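Propose amino acids for all 136 sites.
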């Protein structure tokens, strides 16, 4: 399948289109998708849970002009530490338990999607992952 495919006002980029068994380590998509100029990103995940607890998805960005893949920046979220004087930054991982779709913050540049099984024995499968993006 050629990437990306135009669908209405959106582009659909296939990150993974073959049935793939989950592992306990992160597996990355084979390419970095350019999302410059996109105002909306949506990740579509077709996942069948097995004996694992769930599947974690990690999203990383890098910007044009930097060495490809060498300067990936992970999405993070902050929480206030016990001293209430610092904000702790944590890597943002999306945990899914079934077929799902969710919006992503667009940080610009290119995006890389990785996935892994967590908890239990990884026996689930990913049937496909697509990144849909477009402008208002």
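Proposal:
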């Amino acid at each position: 399948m050629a990437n990306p495919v135009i669908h209405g006002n959106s582009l659909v980029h296939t990150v993974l289109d073959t049935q793939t068994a989950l592992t306990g380590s992160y597996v990355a998509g084979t390419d970095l998708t350019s999302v410059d100029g996109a105002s909306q990103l949506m990740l579509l995940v077709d996942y069948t849970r097995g004996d694992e607890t769930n599947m974690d998805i990690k999203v990383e960005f890098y910007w044009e002009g930097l060495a490809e893949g060498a300067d990936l920046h992970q999405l993070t979220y902050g929480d206030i530490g016990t001293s209430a004087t610092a904000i702790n930054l944590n890597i943002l991982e999306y945990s899914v338990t079934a077929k799902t779709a969710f919006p992503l913050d667009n940080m610009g540049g290119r995006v890389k999607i990785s996935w892994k099984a967590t908890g239990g024995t990884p026996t689930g499968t990913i049937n496909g992952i697509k990144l849909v993006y477009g402008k208002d």
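The radius of gyration is 16 Å. The mean pLDDT is 79.
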